[in-house]
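Ticket opened by: R.M.
Priority: normal
Category: complex prediction / small molecule

The reporter submitted a protein together with aspartyl-adenosine-5'-monophosphate and asked that the result be attached to this ticket for the collaborator who will pick it up next week. Submitted input follows.
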Amino acid sequence: MERCYIADAVKSPGQRVFLQGFVDNLRDSKYMAFLVLKDITGKVQVTIEKEKLPELCEAVSSLTEDSVISVTGTVVANDYVKLNGAEVIPEEIRVESIADALPIARRAIPATKKKKAVERSGIDQRIDYRWIDLRTEENQLMIQVQTAMVNAMRQYLLAENFVEIHTPKLIGAASESGADVFEVKYFDRNAYLAQSPQFYKQMAMAAGLERIFEVGPVFRAEKSYTNRHTTEFTGFDLEFSYIRSCQDVMDMEARLLAHMLKEVAQQYGERIREAFGTQVIVPTLPFPVIALHDLYEELEKAYGYQVEESEKGDLTTEAEQLSYRWVQEKYGHEFLFVTGFGAEKRAFYHMRDENGVPMGYDLIWRGVEITTGAQREHRYEVLKKQAEEKNLAEDVKFYLEFFRYGCPPHGGFGLGVDRMTMLLLNLTIKDAMFLFRGPNRLNP
Ligand code: AMO
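Result attached by the on-call engineer:
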């Protein structure tokens, strides 16, 4: 018989079905055994009357929670069963894989008369056994939501004439700033892991592809131990040509995110609220924008926040967090574009205005940076000069070549998929990834 999903099975009482999944819960008593079977679509109770089915007793008594089984049986409607008002009466149970006692507690277990309370294992311990941790409904929902986020953005861009590219992650020169880059052995020389697809996104513009995006791994050799930094994350990057200004880039991003959140709210809003206690809010357009200098003034006026003179060219973490309160109070919005960063704090490839201010932005969502974007400098001579100013001209020689043989004006941005997931579901980054990588974490 073909495998049937649990969600479909419980809708068809009277049907004979073949189900497969994990044992989510098990109660084995003298005359009856109840087990809850779980697959990607839901859970169902399997009820075994031991006297009637003595041949199943052995299989049942060997079972442990998280074992994997196959069940052939009949779906029966039963109002006494809380779960779906239906149960499965098995005729055969095949044990596919027995689980040892679990090494982690995925959730806190309250004390009973017989047993002491069990605390939930910490996230680092849970990551040691991430495959077991990922079996929870919350984690499976997290992965489904992340899929929906990326899919909604991909669909949106495909409809806007974008193409998807796949750029190399092994590169011969450090991208971006030269710092925070992982060096790897590459035969008899060194290579680097890409810190961003930046240079290749722009190569695609010089190649005349006009509108491109990429979803791929990004590596950062940063020794940061915060709840929003990882050494390897998934970047959603895009770049497009013939923009009039950085405003076009910001508008594209706002429309893209509003579309994505609308889709996620429709598909998963209710389940996200139940599982994570947080609401998916579809943002209104346009998103509020403020220049960095003005933001510091506003934060000082509203909350007495003062920034050190030396930090004024960049957004401090505290200001980033406070800006969430400010943008909510002032605009009733969760997003804030911040423009007007100091040239010394930004990448050499940002185009600068007549005052030398980079024509780029950061996008802050719920008080955390999720994007850097900009109009790029596409004029070879100017770009070369800006690279020289930052002592990068030698390193980026190959990149500068992209601009010598014709290149349209263009801009783009990079979004952190893990950061977005984390903010959407109110998690830390370690919880919001399939498998976290940090300075002290290379396994499993
Ligand atoms: P940036 O370095 O700001 O810009 O990165 C873009 C976005 O990637 C995410 N991000 C991270 N997520 C988790 N852990 C990290 N260590 C980490 N670092 C960055 C953030 C960030 O906003 N080339 C430019 C983009 C561009 O201009 O197109 C760039 O890489 O969400």
